[in-house]
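Appendix B, example 12.
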Amino acid sequence: MTKAPWIMCRSEIKVLDCTIRDGGLVNNHQFDDDFVHAVYNTCVAAGVDYMELGYKNSERMFDKTKCGAWRFCNEESIRRIVGDNATPLKLAVMIDAGKTDWQNDVIPKQQSVIDTVRVAFYVHQVPEATDMIRDAHEKGYEVWANLMAASTATEEEIDKVLEILAETPASVLVVVDSYGSMYAEQIERLVTKYLSFGRGTGKEVGIHAHNNQQLAFANSIEAIIHGANRVDASLGGLGRGAGNCPMELMLGFLRNPKFKLRPIYDTLERCVAPLQKNIEWGPYPEFIMTGQNNQHPRAAIEARENPQTRDHYVEFYDRIMMQQ
């Protein structure tokens, strides 16, 4: 009899909620405590494995009068939401190469309620990223390595980065489709490549997909099919620009009985849907265009934020095509 794996579950797969971290890029991380607490409670009730609370960026580089607490994730702010986090949910933060005073702001694990540090970096930042990974590991954290904008790197560059990362204590190598430009074939190739470099040291592979071409969910499934055991998602797909893989779709697909969908829909109804009255995310045409052309969505974000340029699709198309 032919097996039907899509009706079974793979218990090795762990899900990370990035609603506050990636979603915070839509509103400068100015979520109030009630919203963050609701997402935290939802992750616990739904059986999600990790919750990424935000960035641990340097206060010297970002204006605290314009950015909310989740751009900095100091211990006081985090504990105000989670206390000592007496739950199975693991808490994560992201540290950016070039934007984080990681030597000082990432405190030893025994002083923090955080479990996991995700190091985000571009190809040209690998030397600093490896130092960041080792530093966080030595301080007692589980560490993930997120090579951003992989769609803009050459095969030779990716191979070299993975060769270097394989020698670090990072436990997860994340395929990041920063621009939402990738298709299934690219996801398959990258996941397979990441696995080949990580397998010898027991590293897992993750996927972080953006939804510019409405493929974040499909590409996350593709990554899982080819062996990725870590997957990012957010409530309602909330995230920068076009957003991320929707949590409600991913948990439904995984079919693991430990995951509960009702808490997700409850929070979508009470907390996430009302956000759309004041902020927007999703695959608007401007984000589709940047995804199709493998471009950073910053131009699309600027166009959407300006009432004089929003929804001027042809004008935006002509402008970005001139940049090709």
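The longest strand covers residues 90-96. The mean pLDDT is 95.
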